[in-house]
Specification:
It holds the Pfam family AdoMet_dc. This protein has about 120 residues and is of the alpha+beta class. The chain is built from three helices and seven strands, in the order E-H-H-E-E-E-E-H-E-E. Helix 2 runs antiparallel to helix 3.
Amino acid sequence: MMGVVSLPRVIGKQVYGSLYECDTTVLGEQKVLEQIVRKAAEEGNMTLLDVKAWKIGDGVSIVAIVLESHITIHTWPEYNFATVDVYSCGSHTDPRKAFLYIVKELKARRYTMNEADRSSEF
């Protein structure tokens, strides 16, 4: 009789939200936002693989690929508004810490923060 193979559990954590009344001087600065995403990955104990950014109108969209998943920021300076999504796999990561670092750096006066457990069920 063969033994049962036990697969390691996938631990997925996602923190996402909307940031209001942000510092407009930061929201349109692609290079500054790239640095914020890089530092957020470090704060969340994630392994940064690559960062891509696009200037779209006055705003910027940033996608950071981390070994554990991704971090995104999309900004609308004309509305002092940004959205942020931090998703990571692995018990060693802290997407909440990365999200809150971004909130602080964008100087959001108010924000929503949602958390989702994206772990496996097997």
